[in-house]
Amino acid sequence: MTQRIMANQHSQTAGSSAATLLDATVAAFDQGQAASPQEGMSLITDWFSSIKNNHLTGDLMAPLTQLRDELQTGAPDNQRLTQLLNELADKTEQTAPKAEGDMQSGLQTLATALRNFAGQLSTTV
Predict the structure, then answer these.
(1) Are 117 and 25 in contact (CB under 8 A)?
(2) Which domain of life is it from (predicted)?
(3) pTM
(4) What are the tens digits of pLDDT across the range 94-119?
């Protein structure tokens, strides 16, 4: 039920501001709601919509695409997901200084949440 609610919140944020999407993504990772491939796909779809025309976040497209592709396999490999999440965290952290205002700290928080989730996956067998 919670995942369904989170998925609905994600689809509603697709057209919303980047800050709203950033908050929703961090909340999903903090609450452990992004653990399912479907939830991850929902977040990735929203991020694609949000950053596709933003030159500052263009570096995030490659790891997001690879992450989406891995989730679409139906049986994602935790080691590969860990690697991709860490790469995405690195790219997010590199993008943060280019962002304006509160987005800088938000992107840093997202990078930390991605790394924490990757760490959780790496310990899952």
Answers:
(1) no
(2) Bacteria
(3) 0.75
(4) 988 988 888 888 889 989 989 988 88
